[in-house]
Amino acid sequence: MKRRDLFTQALSKAFDAFAEAGEEIIHTLKVYPEQKSTSSYLLDENKDVKDHLTLGLELAKNNEQNTKLVSKKRKSKRSFVPNNLKRPPGSISPDSKFKKLCTGCSECTYSCPYGVIFPIYDEKLEINFPFIDVNANACMLCEDMPCVKSCDTGALKLPKNGVFKPFGQANGIFSNCINHQTGEKTCNACEEACPIPKTVIFKANQPTFTKSCIGCGLCVKSCPTYPKAIRVS
To answer: Which of 10, 104, 120, 164 falls between 20 and 30 A from 50, CA-CA?
Structure first.
């Protein structure tokens, strides 16, 4: 069973348990209306408690339907994504084609062993599209690429030449770098973490990043300073 199915099954059981508990409370209030328990006291003080509880049960049983109703009531539907977010590896271009093929199944999200991929709901298209933020959580560039292989629609594809489209370009913020503070080459964590040879080149004690950078974010992850001395843009 896939992780998505397990999650859906667990969520369904949770809603069922909530609904069952709520029905028992309503039954108790009906059978013992005069009993001065905490529940009946609340009922005496606020006649709408029972109605609110009933409404909560309906929302639990029809969670997906109510989510859509709430979405429709919003005045405007946006399709806004911050610039720092990127598509998962293997995403096809242009992005408009990716959106047509992606169904929002989240299989790539569930298949990522490092939890790098996460969904963002597109209010306009009403689909959860996958994204990554390499500055917050680097793509580990898995050899077997489980995220790409999990995609059945072709929105994510293995490149024919074995080279994925870059996520971005790493840029150094030398004022935050340990080497700037010590005045010598004290740290080369970014150079050691980079999977692409000769991408991180030191000029004296200052690291620079060549155009061979794919923007995976591993250098950002390895940087020991805070704020980080590297950012992928």
So the answer is: 10
